Amino acid sequence: MLVDFIAANREEIIGRTRAKVAKRLAPVSTERELMSGVPLFLDQLAETLRRTPLSGGSIENGAALHGAALLDLGYSVAQVVHDYGDICQAVTELADEVNAPITTVEFHTFNRCLDSALAGAMTEYSRLRERAMAEGETERSGIFAHELRNRLAAAQLAFLAIKSGRAPIGGSVAAVVTRNLHGMSGIIDRALVEVRVDSGSAQRERIQLHQLIEEAEVDGTMEAGVHGVSLSVASTGREIDVDADPQILAGAVANLLQNAFKFTHAGGHVSLRTSLVGERVEIEIEDQCGGLPPGKAEELFCAFQQRGANRSGLGLGLFISRKGVEASGGVIRVRDVPGSGCIFTIDLPVLPV
Which of 5, 114, 180, 270 has the highest Cβ tally under 10 A? Predict the structure, then answer.
């Protein structure tokens, strides 16, 4: 029987499938997928086949459970589709090579199990994903409104103190107003970028990078002063053009600068520079946060993740920056400089002159 054939040749099938997955161009295979995912997918498929009589059986119920399990384990829909397909090819090829005594009816049942597993897993995956996204959006909206309200309340109280004459216009209370107004501006800019990316309304065009950097310098210098740090900006070649949505890219740069100002120690320094690397341009923002704890760099671009002791904010700035940069055809990465700080890099293709 086919089930017995899979059980007897489990390691060979896993090895062949791993080889196929490793050669895949997209989605790119992961170490976890190769080591844990392939055996998991094969065992789930064998279990479904074992419990399914030749007449049909309830394949879909098991497949739905597998879809939920795969979502919990972090596998994407693309990985599910490709990995099941690779397993099917490995089983079929091996059975053909060794002339395994498997009937046409068994292969037909196997293919139905595969199709139903894919359909059921993808349906359940999508349902749970949509529910998780809806819950996440509700939580995000609530936290967004809470943070905006807190900053507005602080600015109002400080302004009333100044208006009543209890505090001078140029004193520390006035700085509270300025700081919170800048904070609200950053929150709103970040939200606008995210809406633009998520709605698919990005409008890419040729951008002269030096103009974007110069505008970032103007706003960034003011923001740096609020946080008590300094900002230096290296000149950008006027011949560098990129293809991106100007609002999204400017928002991503602003988010990275705001993040750098937030975590750089008072009296510290933030630098913004650009450099050509072949046919790509790198926009680097270096801070003086003191460095990251081990393993923290990988978490920075996740939603609701924050670094350092300063827990103010939504923890969305870097998450949204990554989405914005990727929408512009680029990538974003971070390099930890232990004991000093971090260097965030936006890497974009350069348009030909």
Answer: 270
Query: For the domain that residue 306 is a member of, what is the CATH number?
Result: 3.30.565.10
Claim to verify: residue 296 and residue 218 sit in the same structural domain: yes
Return the residue matching tokens 């003086």: 288
Quick one: pLDDT at residue 235? 83
157 domain-assigned: no
Q: What domain range is 248 assigned to?
A: 204-349
One domain, residues 208 and 345: yes
Q: Domain check: are 323 and 215 in the same one?
A: yes
Work out how many domains the chain is built from and give that number.
Answer: 2
**pLDDT exceeds cutoff 50 at 70:** yes
Q: Which residue has the higher pLDDT, 97 or 58?
A: 97
pLDDT in tens, 115-138: 666 666 666 665 665 566 556 566
